[in-house]
Structure formats: structure tokens, C-alpha cells
Design goal:
Pfam families: NDK
Mean pLDDT: 94
Organism: Oikopleura dioica
Number of domains: 1
CATH superfamily: Nucleoside diphosphate kinase-like domain
Protein name: Nucleoside diphosphate kinase
EC number: 2.7.4.6
CATH architecture: 2-Layer Sandwich
Low-confidence stretches: none
Bound molecules: inosine-5'-diphosphate
Family: Belongs to the NDK family.
Number of strands: 4
Largest sheet: 4 strands, antiparallel
Order of helices and strands: EHHEHHEHHEHH
């Protein structure tokens, strides 16, 4: 959880990405994960979990009281979720660009939601929206030993500036 203040700086962040139950049901796991891998992001943790109501309520606590909150909790607990941790340059804002707008009917073509979804209540994927939320969400969904630290041979081809 560092902050990448200026676009174009070289700071590396971690984020939490979850493929929601509709992504699993629709068989889109490979397609969505592929987009993060092809971008050059570094996978640190991955697990298939049936989240409890309590976990989802904590994850979405900022939305408590919103009209869509109950539906959102029901949706997120309706089946297994693929939870993941990724690292990369400016990954928090960059992964949200890959996802597209929250409402898939407004998401740009080329984005995950723009290409693959139509409904805000079935928008396939979650990505943390700030460094503080990324660390909070990683801590909610993962034990420390489930997040790996490994070095990739391709690193210099993806990350070096010159
Ligand atoms: P985000 O997932 O793009 O960060 P948030 O505003 O944090 O968007 O909303 C969290 C999730 O709540 C959304 O991804 C979506 O699943 C759901 N949601 C948000 N707004 C609505 C709504 O108006 N109707 C139904 N579901 C919504």
C-alpha cells in the first residue's frame, strides 16, 4: 500500500482483486485473470472461497445503508469468489481502468465490464480503490502466509524504465 500520487511515477503497489460469483458462474475466470497477467501484473495470492456474510459485510462496510447494500451482500455470498492479490506499478488506479466503470452499461469497450457485462448489480469483478483499502481488503481475505513473495524472470522486461 504505497500511494502513487503522480501518474508515470515508478511506485509499486499491491491490490486486492476479486472475481465475483457471476464471473465464476459464467466461466469468465480465465478471460479475466488473463487480462491482469497480460498487462504484466505480478500475482501474489489466489484462492477460491465461499465468503461468509460477515466477511462480505466487512468488505463492503462503507456501503452499509445504501439502497443496493442488501442485494450486494446477497450477490457476493451467492457462490464462490476468486480472491487474489496482485502487485504492479500504479496497480490501484490501473486495475480500476482495466475493470471499467462500476456500471457496465457505461464502461468503455476494451474494459472487463465494458466487454463482458451489462448490469451494475452483476459487474463481475472488484478492485480496491485506494492503498488503505487494498491493505484492509488483503487482510480481510488472506492470511499472511497465503500471500507469496517471488521474483519473476520477466521482471526487468516489464518494469524497467530504460
Ligand atoms: P466499485 O466496485 O466500482 O468500486 P462501488 O461504488 O464501490 O463500485 O460499489 C461496490 C459494488 O456495489 C459495485 O461493484 C456493484 O457490485 C454494487 N453497486 C454499486 N452501485 C450499485 C447500484 O446502484 N445498484 C446495484 N449494485 C450496485
Amino acid at each position: 500500500g504505497q500511494t502513487c500520487s503522480a501518474p508515470g511515477d515508478s511506485c509499486v503497489e499491491r491490490t486486492f482483486i476479486a472475481l465475483k460469483p457471476d464471473a465464476i458462474q459464467r466461466g469468465l475466470v480465465g478471460d479475466i485473470i488473463n487480462r491482469f497477467e497480460r498487462k504484466g501484473f505480478h500475482l501474489l495470492g489466489l484462492k477460491f472461497v465461499q465468503p461468509s456474510r460477515q466477511l462480505v459485510e466487512k468488505h463492503y462496510e462503507e456501503h452499509l445503508g445504501r439502497p443496493f447494500y442488501e442485494g450486494l451482500v446477497n450477490y457476493m455470498t451467492s457462490g464462490p469468489v476468486l480472491a487474489s492479490v496482485w502487485e504492479g506499478k500504479n496497480i490501484i488506479s490501473s486495475s480500476r481502468s482495466l475493470l471499467g466503470a462500476t456500471d457496465p452499461s457505461k464502461a468503455a469497450p476494451g474494459t472487463i465490464r465494458g466487454d463482458l457485462a451489462t448490469q451494475v448489480g452483476r459487474n463481475l469483478v472488484h478492485a480496491s480503490d485506494s492503498p488503505a483499502n487494498a491493505e484492509r481488503e488483503i487482510g480481510l481475505w488472506f492470511q499472511p502466509e497465503e500471500v507469496q513473495s517471488w521474483s519473476r524472470a520477466l521482471k526487468k522486461w516489464i518494469n524497467e524504465e530504460n
